[in-house]
Sequence to fold (207 residues):
Amino acid sequence: MRCQQPEDSGDMAEAAPQTATDKRVQRSKQAVLAETYRQLTEGGIGGVSVDEISRRSGVAKTTIYRHWPSRSALLLDACSQIGAPQPVPDTGSLSGDLRVLTETLANGLRTATWPSILPSIIDTAERDPQVADMHAALHRNMMAPFTTAVERAQTRGELSPSRPSNEIVAALVGPLFYRRWFSKEPLDSQFVEHILHDLFSTTRLNH
Fold:
């Protein structure tokens, strides 16, 4: 009597090569995005070259364009990796929550790579609607934890709802951005404390 192969053996044989192919594709895409991001940090959006990405990553241009139909699509994908929203702390008080968030942002502005990319995104967004949409999304993601903390405090009565949350957030993060890109002064803990003190001196609290 002949033994029959299990009916799904062919599917299993096909699955193994497919899995290997998927992993190779994923590695190629990651290599391209990593090199794109590296070029963004060095020269902004204008400094990104698909030829150089191909040479440095070892991924053929035809493969790159198979995954991203244009340089703009690749840039949008690489830039979308910036500014993943941080967790919203819950210290039990608005001042504690904002202190954690502000110190984290200040540290990112000092040490992370994305602050060197963001100015070129803002500049390009003035002329490119797709980049403008991406910049708006990045901004929402970065500011979302601050907005959540402020609105949570307003809901529980710790903070008066008379002032819009976006104005409070702007008053808090604006000085950090000013020091990072304009005055180039230190973004240290003392400055964070000054910002928080000024904010709570001018924002009406409910006691």
The chain is about 70% helix and 0% strand. Residues 24 and 30 are 10 Å apart (CA to CA). Confidence is low (pLDDT under 50) at residues 1-6.
